[in-house]
Amino acid sequence: MIDIQNVTLAYADRVILRDISLELSERRIAIIGANGSGKSSFARLLNGLVMPTKGDVLVDGLNTRTHGKDVRQKVGFVFQNPDNQIVFPVVEEDLAFGMKNLKFSKEDIAQKTTDILSRYNMLDMREHPAHLLSGGQKQLLAISGVLVMEPTYVVLDEPTTLLDLRNKRRITHAINALEQTVILASHDLDLLTDFDRVIVFDDGRIAIDDVPSVAIPHYIKLMS
Ligand SMILES: Nc1ncnc2c1ncn2[C@@H]1O[C@H](COP(=O)(O)OP(=O)(O)OP(=O)(O)O)[C@@H](O)[C@H]1O
């Protein structure tokens, strides 16, 4: 479980999130809200990319302030733009990077690389330059790079925003098929209909926290 305890987040003197307390335990949780409402900032709090100004974030009991490395291993993070996530020029090198850091054996790295690339029908791209992949393939590579590190939670920050409809469908399918707990920040309401819980941020606070069939219509009303 991810436990958010009385978290306030401010950049300089501008408060983005105000005294938020939440227990995230469902398998599929969505975070929605207007532009600038703090979705990305909230997502980044969950794996210690951003620290709360006040309060604490605990991941399976580990505080992001004191156990950053362990937390980042438990909570994989997928950025909106895969170009920010893909750091090595060749697909298999990029996948190997995180696993090498975790001291996985060579054989294990090779096997996990094969498994994840076949899962996404990208096995023949193993030795491809990453920058030549399509937008959808890049996002799948970014997701793959997170999954091979075997996280318990996967946080995705607007992973479909830059994609065309076909690639959006591929990523949606990939997200729906994840066995991990998923926490997804998104503007894309189509993605969220099968989720367990939708949390709506508005002006630094939680405006709605409910199942999609209740939360989404409320959100649409709030935005109109
Ligand atoms: N590192 C930072 N330093 C200062 N201000 C920041 C920083 N990161 C975000 N902000 C500001 O905090 C506010 C919330 O940003 P955030 O990206 O979390 O919102 P969001 O809901 O994800 O927005 P969007 O839907 O546009 O992606 C914005 O006004 C943004 O400009």
Overall description:
It contains seven helices and ten strands. With 224 residues, the chain is an alpha/beta fold. It has a single domain (2-223), classed as Rossmann fold. Strands 6-7-8-3-9-10 form a six-stranded mixed sheet, sandwiched between helices. A four-stranded antiparallel sheet has the order 2-1-4-5, with helices on one face. A hairpin with a 2-residue loop joins strand 1 (2-11) and strand 2. Helix 3 packs parallel to helix 5 (135-147). The radius of gyration is 17 Å and the shape is globular. The protein binds adenosine-5'-triphosphate (ATP). Residues 11, 16, 33, 35-41 line the site of adenosine-5'-triphosphate (ATP).
Briefly summarize what is shown.
This protein has 224 residues and is an alpha/beta fold. The chain has one domain (2-223): Rossmann fold. The chain contains seven helices and ten strands.
How does the SSE layout of this entry go?
Blueprint: E1 2-11, E2 14-24, E3 28-33, H1 39-45, E4 54-59, E5 62-63, H2 68-74, E6 75-78, H3 91-101, H4 106-119, H5 135-147, E7 153-157, H6 165-176, E8 181-185, E9 197-202, E10 205-210, H7 212-223
Parallel strand pairs: 3-8, 3-9, 6-7, 7-8
Antiparallel strand pairs: 1-2, 1-4, 4-5, 9-10
Helix pairs in contact: 3-4, 3-5, 5-6
Mean of the pLDDT scores?
A: 94
Element pattern in H and E: EEEHEEHEHHHEHEEEH
CATH class: Alpha Beta
Count of helices? 7
Family: Belongs to the ABC transporter superfamily.
InterPro entries: AAA+_ATPase (IPR003593), ABC_transporter-like_ATP-bd (IPR003439), ABC_transporter-like_CS (IPR017871), ABC_transpr_CbiO/EcfA_su (IPR015856), ECF_ABC_transporter_ATP-bd (IPR050095), P-loop_NTPase (IPR027417)
GO molecular function, one term: ATP binding
Domain ABC transporter: 2-220
